[in-house]
């Protein structure tokens, strides 16, 4: 029976009826039909591949696959054969072109494409075009089918599974797209060989293929190992192929697989967005991407069919203004209409995600507090490396105030699909800067990146969760270690997000402890976002600017100023303004602390980088504890011409005790009293008792930490 | 009769009734009453002045004057004597404090204040406090009145008119505030001497004072000589004092004065905002300021009383969410309610403003095209200097696409009311960078500013309108000259905003002609806003960064890269991305053209500047014509993952003819044909005939210019 990929033949009558009842379904279909009609009104153009992403042939082939998918659905909804003829005619053109193709002239990676510069886009082409083919299959003569299958789909599937076999077997988002392309083709062509390759990998042993990908790419909580931005991208083939599997092999119970891992994957993907719905830009990522993206439209609709409609996602659907034209999309459109204006709010919550298939490869702690509309969110990343798009950012933090970046992750250096920026590819500075350790809010030892910047080595080690406590909204604490990122240097970072009754916003206390037998230069960067307002410390600002270092990302930072070490230990505060809000970072200093002010943009021949600032706290030591507080304060309102509270409320941050057993840090606020955080360094067992002497007095506690207010 | 300043006693019954009928009036009053009630619930605190702007005593005295104004109105609306007592008690405190004061300890200007660091704020204090006093006047005993008048208001008025007499007599926004303070006090105290000082200046000859200000600060079209940002600020005392005059001396017909100059002033102030309602940042200005500002609430309400409600301003009122609690505010609230949801849109139109009292001091051309929601706006400034807040930007241009800056004016370097930024004052870089010629999109000769950066000299010369034609929305052209800004260099700039049927947005053709008997270095900066995407020219980017020059603003620019001169004349294009839109600037080049890429931020010890880019087109010549096109093109949509049209559509820009009589420039578009602009350089008479030879052919036209499409 056809269709049987995203839409099953049995769904069609209900879908047609739904079009007349549920406005969002109708609107979603109308958009597809408009795409189809527009394509039908133009001549069929199937150009010889030539241009990189953003260029003409790239865009034309992309338009074509969307047009074929849209025409296929339009045919199923209307039974108007003009749509079927369009798909047929275009696929016949492709069946003439594809057998003539060698690798794309702009191909530069190890996985070249034929229609596009990379095989990934060829997979996209198959995933969408095969839906068109499947939808009009019944209208085609056997001869036409043979031509199309042998001329277009089989050659590409053979190319993926044979020519690019190692790539096809990757447990990686490309691999998921490849599996979906091959598997969906297998169902449409009734080709068990293709289906098995897709499901079980080229060796048929489930070391690769779709099941291996479901097993290997998500943690038990559904955290996608490449990070939030790629989770969104991978969800698309995961859900589309799963839907096709379920329509053809329901006995596989693919949506129940691994304790409903696909549901968890969707939930964690939605959770890992900031308060504006934009994906957290961990690892290679573009900051503009948000949860209205097309991939999530499909995932939410498909998930609704198999897990029921989640009412807290309806608000997202409303922003997306779209559903999939499928049985699941029908359910979502129906639920949205029934809900009317009373849409329950999507709840972003604190959560500790483990990484790795078994959850043993570190993780990501997301600490959140405040109402949904005014939430402070702190990310603490001690995951595995994250495959080829991973960054060397062990123990990095990122801080948001609502959707506003307070301490940013740079993301990737890329202008998606902008032809003039290397065809929209990742730019060289993604590797030379954005992925390097110094591009993140985490410790850099001796101006090198974690694992020497070697991906293979980085893949072998993850951070290690030490403890986390997120149950109390007023004080959330997470701690993790990384002992492998730098040879001979043990690192532990502990972050606390806490509310103080006299402070308008939550505060972050950040304690990063480095231990080594030998002396190192330790740099702790804080990529604050905004305009510098004031510093508590004096600095030299030279008249000329030089790069901060020769390599490992330092070559991309302009050295703007260097703060002078102070005579007595104390604190250094840097205050900045972002939108209507002042922020300060206050860090404990000693007589050796150098405060380095720098700006991104050096050695950037094509002006690919954004000129954003960073403060590096620099120490030379064997053992060092960096203790810092980040706070929001005051308000700047240029319309009302008021500005208040432009000074930090932190009077001091100090390390009161540091030993192999424990570290104790104290924060004194100018208003709001004093806080102490004691951290167990060697025994994080909940029942373990700890005692250290602080200022001559014993400090006792049980469990991995204690946080007290005086 | 009291009250008789912003509210006349006779207005009170209708206002009270209006509160129950017109929600916006009620809401506006409720906010005032809340301010009053909050103040009444706290102890009266009148601290000894100590802090600069943003600091505690500054903010407290500001709160106090707003509280007294609010309590005065609350008393009039309720007749509850608690409000009257509050005003009385606070003014009695001030009457004890003020006589003890010397100049403010933080005073740094030549017009120091007593309660505040500058006299301007003391005037603000009087203007608001006197309204409170006036409102509760009838409740006070003669002894109380004497204490308050002699202790608080007279000493400050004497201070302004005697100690600061030269300042009081300034025809300048400070002078308007001073006149309003003294004049409103005069009416409240029934003191003709103060009234006359305020109206006619300290010499009583109308060389200074309010009438002189009405005569001198506005052009015949209502353009305020200090520029849009200060128009907004000055409108407040202009309208408040005018209202007080009208309530006390209606025979003066102040709202009819100078052919209703106040109405024209308000209209031009609203017109000189970008499509987001933000004031164009010409001269010293903060970019955040928009037309919802409090000053315009008052001006719109007062104008409505005297000129009738302008329905196209009701949309602004709706954004302001406020009216004045006055007879005019009542009219506005009534009109808004009557209009319901059908508010006519405010219409920003093309307009040529003359500058100077008689319109003889140059002007500002505002060329606009497109629907109100998608308007392109080009400002061309050849005004007088603009008093102490003026910038050295003769013949400067600024370009907007909707509310988005395409070619920016930097504005001023200031963080309003931010205590940590020098108390919120103008920062030194306002003078050393933002006001200098090189900080603007206009010609810099020999790395110096117009008039050697000397304000006195700059005040003596304005730009000169040459011609302007704004009647045809598809082609608008303006031309102006400036022969005094640089000794021995005559400058003429002509800008055309035109639409091309195959281009998605209007284009700007910019022709700047410099003529001199001796060779000069000519720099033409373009402060493009956004991320550089590509350049058509090669450049050297050194590994280290140095300031572009030693002074006149050049010291604040980092030299990022220098484009190499080309072997054959042609064009250089720079493309950038801002939000969803690509833009390009394409300029004609010859074998001597250097393209200098720079960024703001050098020699900025306190990090006061924003790190924004600029492209300088540099020539060494006696006579030079810079011909450039600025265009919007393509679209970047990261959510849909599409990017199209990232390449400029301009194939060439060339000067076909340049002579004493005329200049002819040609633009060839890759799509859309060829345009020629011929400009008469010596005779701009509408009837004059011109003929030049272009490429061997005669080109004939009549009038100051011709613009043709091939």
Automatic annotation (TrEMBL), chains A, B:
Species assigned in the record: Hymenobacter artigasi
UniProt key word Signal: yes
PANTHER family assigned: HEPARIN-SULFATE LYASE (PTHR39210)
Protein's recorded name: Alginate lyase family protein
Entry's localization field: Periplasm
Domain Heparinase II/III-like C-terminal: 355-541
Domain called Alginate lyase: residue spans: 67-274
UniProt keyword Transferase, yes or no: no
One Pfam family from the record: Hepar_II_III_C
Highest taxon in the source lineage: Bacteria
Chief site of localization: periplasm
Keyword line: Lyase, Periplasm, Signal
């Amino acid at each position: 029976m056809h269709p049987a990929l995203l839409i099953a033949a049995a769904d069609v009558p209900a879908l047609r009826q739904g079009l007349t009842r549920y406005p969002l379904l109708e609107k979603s279909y109308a958009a597809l039909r408009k795409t189809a009609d527009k394509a039908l009104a133009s001549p069929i153009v199937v150009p010889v591949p030539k241009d990189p992403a953003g260029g003409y042939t790239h865009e034309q082939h992309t338009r074509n696959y969307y047009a074929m998918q849209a025409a296929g659905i339009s045919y199923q909804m209307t039974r108007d054969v003009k749509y079927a003829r369009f798909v047929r005619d275009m696929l016949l053109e492709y069946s003439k072109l594809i057998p003539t193709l060698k690798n794309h002239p702009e191909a530069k990676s190890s996985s070249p494409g034929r229609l596009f510069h990379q095989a990934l886009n060829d997979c996209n082409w198959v995933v969408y075009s095969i839906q068109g083919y499947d939808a009009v299959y019944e209208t085609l003569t056997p001869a036409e089918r043979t031509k199309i299958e042998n001329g277009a789909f089989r050659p590409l599937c053979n190319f993926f599974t044979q020519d690019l076999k190692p790539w096809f077997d990757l447990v990686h988002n490309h691999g998921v797209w490849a599996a979906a392309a091959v598997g969906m083709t297998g169902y449409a062509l009734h080709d068990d060989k293709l289906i098995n390759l897709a499901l079980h990998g080229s060796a048929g042993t489930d070391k690769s293929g779709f099941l291996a990908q479901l097993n290997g790419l998500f943690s038990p909580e559904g955290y996608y190992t490449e990070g939030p931005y790629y989770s969104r991208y991978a969800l698309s083939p995961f859900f589309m192929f799963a839907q096709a599997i379920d329509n053809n092999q329901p006995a596989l119970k693919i949506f129940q697989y691994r304790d409903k891992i696909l549901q968890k994957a969707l939930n964690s993907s939605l959770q890992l967005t900031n308060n504006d719905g934009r994906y957290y830009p961990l690892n290679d990522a573009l900051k503009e991407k948000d949860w209205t993206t097309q991939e999530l439209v499909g995932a939410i609709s498909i998930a609704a069919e198999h897990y029921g409609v989640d009412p807290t996602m309806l608000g997202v659907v409303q922003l997306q203004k779209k559903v999939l034209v499928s049985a699941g999309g029908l359910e979502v459109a129906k639920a949205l209409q029934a809900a009317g204006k009373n849409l329950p709010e999507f709840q972003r919550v604190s959560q500790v995600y483990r990484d790795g298939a078994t959850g043993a490869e570190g993780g990501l702690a997301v600490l959140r507090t405040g109402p949904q509309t005014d939430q402070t969110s702190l990310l603490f990343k001690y995951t595995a490396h994250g495959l080829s798009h991973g960054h060397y950012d062990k123990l990095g933090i990122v801080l948001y105030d609502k959707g506003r970046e307070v301490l940013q992750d740079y993301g990737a250096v890329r202008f998606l699909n902008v032809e003039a920026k290397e065809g929209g590819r990742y730019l060289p500075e993604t590797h030379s800067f954005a992925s390097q350790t110094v591009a993140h809010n985490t410790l850099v030892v001796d101006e090198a990146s974690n694992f020497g910047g070697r991906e293979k080595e980085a893949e072998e080690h993850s951070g290690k969760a030490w403890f986390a406590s997120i149950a109390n909204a007023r004080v959330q604490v997470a701690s993790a270690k990384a002992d492998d990122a730098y040879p001979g240097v043990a690192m532990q970072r502990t972050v606390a997000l806490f509310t103080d009754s006299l402070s308008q916003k939550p505060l972050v206390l950040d304690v990063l402890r480095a231990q080594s037998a030998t002396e190192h230069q330790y740099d702790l960067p804080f990529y604050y976002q905004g305009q510098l307002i004031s510093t508590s410390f004096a600095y030299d600002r030279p008249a000329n600017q030089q790069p901060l270092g020769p390599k490992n990302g330092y070559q991309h930072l302009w050295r703007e100023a260097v703060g002078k070490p102070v005579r007595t230990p104390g604190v250094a505060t840097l205050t900045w303004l972002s939108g209507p809000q002042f922020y300060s970072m206050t860090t404990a200093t000693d007589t050796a602390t150098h405060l380095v002010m720098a700006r991104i943009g050096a050695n950037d021949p094509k002006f690919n980088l954004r000129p954003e600032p960073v403060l590096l706290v620099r120490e030379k030591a064997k053992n060092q504890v960096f203790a810092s507080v980040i706070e929001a304060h005051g308000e700047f309102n240029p319309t009302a011409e008021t500005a208040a509270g432009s000074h930090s409320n932190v009077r001091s941050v100090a390390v009161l005790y540091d030993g192999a057993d424990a570290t104790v840090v104290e924060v004194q606020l100018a208003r709001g009293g004093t806080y102490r955080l004691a951290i167990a360094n060697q025994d994080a067992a909940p029942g373990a008792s700890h005692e250290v002497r602080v200022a001559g007095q014993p400090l006792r506690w049980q469990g991995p930490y204690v946080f007290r207010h005086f």
